[in-house]
Amino acid sequence: MIHKFLFLFAFFLLSTSQAQDFCVADLKSAQTPSGYPCKSPKTLTVDDFVFSNLRAGNTSANPFKISLTPAFVDEFPAVNGLRLSAARLDMDVGGVVPMHSHSNTNELLIVLSGHITAGFISSDNTVFVTTLSKGKVMVFPQGLLHFQINAGGGKASAFLSFNSENPGAQILDLALFSNNLDSSFVGKTTLLDIAQIKKLKRIFGGRG
C-alpha cells in the first residue's frame, strides 16, 4: 500500500509541476525589472548556451588603458535570470580600472597573466589591497568601492565573475567628472582645486 501511495504522489508532482529550467533572453523584447522575456525552448540549441567571444579587446581606446569584454545578458542571453555573468579584463602597461562599485553584485577576479594590484575599501574605510599573480583569485563584496591596477612591466589579463546577469557599475571618476554639475560644487564636496576639476571634466566629457 505504501508503495502505491508513493508512486501516486510522485506521479502527481511530476504531472502538476511546470518547472522552468532556464530562460534564455529574447533580446528583441523590452527588458523588465525581472529581466527579459524568455525565448521559446523549442527554438533553442546548444549554441544558445555557449559564449565564444571572451577575447582580448582594444586597450588603447580609453585613457585607462584597459579593455573589458563582457558576457552579460545583452551579450550572452543564456544567463538571463540565472544571477551570474562573466567578463574578460585586459590591461596595458599602466592600465587601471578606476575606483568603482556594483550596488548589488559581488565580484571575483581571477588573474590569467601578469601582475594586478587590486583592493577594496570597506564601509568603515578599512583598506584591503594586495598584488595578485597568475592563478590568484580575489573577491570584492557588493556595494564597496574597489579597483585594479596593472602592477607589472607587461600586459595583464583576468576573468571576472559576477552574481548578476547585468552587474552594472558606478565609476567614481565618471560620476565626478563626466556630468554637468557645476565645478564649484564638485570642489566643495571633494576639496579639489577648481582648475584640476575643469581639466578632468574636459578629459571625461563633463561640463560646468
TrEMBL record:
Q: Report if keyword Cytoplasm is assigned.
A: no
Q: Which residues bind oxalate?
A: H102, E107
Span of domain Cupin type-1:
52-198
Q: Where are the membrane-spanning stretches?
A: none
Q: Which UniProt keywords apply?
A: Apoplast, Disulfide bond, Glycoprotein, Manganese, Metal-binding, Receptor, Secreted, Signal
Species of origin: Clitoria ternatea
Q: List the disulfide bonds.
A: C23-C38
- Could you say which residues form the signal peptide? 1-19
Q: What is the designated name of this protein?
A: Germin-like protein
Question: One Pfam family this chain carries?
Answer: Cupin_1
Query: Which molecular-function annotation in GO is an example for this chain?
Result: manganese ion binding
